[in-house]
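Protein Record: Sequence and Backbone Structure Tokens
======================================================
Tokens: labelled as protein backbone structure tokens, with as many entries as the chain has residues.
Task: work out the structure tokens from the sequence, keeping to the layout shown below.
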Amino acid sequence: MFFKLGQLGQIIVQLFQIAVALLLYEFFEKTDKVQASMIVIFGLLGVPLALMGILIPEASHLAEVFWGLWLIPIGTLIIRSRMFPKWVGYFLYIGSLGYLGGTITFFLIGFVPAYVEAFTMGELIWVLWITIIGAKEIQK
């Protein structure tokens, strides 16, 4: 029963991923439409792989490639937009390395070392920042 609820939870998370990718596009499109489009592309490409991960766990590691790649345009847009401190964008670049490094190490050695996963904390820093402090309004 709990296993099935966990699978349902993973499906719901991926539906939210689609919504978040589209909302981030709207949020950042005035800063740079191309980079905002990359958020949507990478965000959506990870969804089917993450859903496949419900049945084939290794597919989740392939989804991590796109989870890592989508942090790059988000970091770039955070730096360019001036709505957040630039250092938050740089932490997203580091978070990207965590996801990409996790995929590489999984396929090379069969597991992801904790020190590689620690790099993904860069994403958490931004999530906490936007949740607690929010974005600055840009003065015209």
Q: What stands out?
A: Residues 2-28 form the longest helix (27 residues). Helices lie at 2-28, 33-52, 58-81, 86-109, 114-117, 121-132. The radius of gyration is 16 Å. The mean pLDDT is 93.
